Amino acid sequence: MSPKPTWKPHTEHGDLSSKEREELPESVFAFPKQRKEPLTDAAHLKNALARFDQVEDVSDADRDLAFANIQAAARHYDVQVEESDWRQLGKRPHTKNTAHE
Fold this sequence. Notes:
Number of helices: 3
Oligomer: single chain
Mean pLDDT: 85
Order of helices and strands: HEEHH
Distance between the termini: 37 Å
Helix content: 25-40%
Number of domains: 1
């Protein structure tokens, strides 16, 4: 059973400065505990889907919640998510994470 999403819409959109990101409530992040992957607009939502497999140091329960939050944000922003489970996105990076170079 999927966890209940904690995501809530927020008025901040577009590119976020680090200060603006720090001020965002946990409820706008796909991974709220870790404050990873803000879902403040459709572009950020699509980025969170694309980078889902690159998020490190999170449990399967964290991924369950993150995917539930992504689905809630997708409904709000009218973005089609083809995957029905986060495992279809991946748990281990299969794309190159340039942040570790």
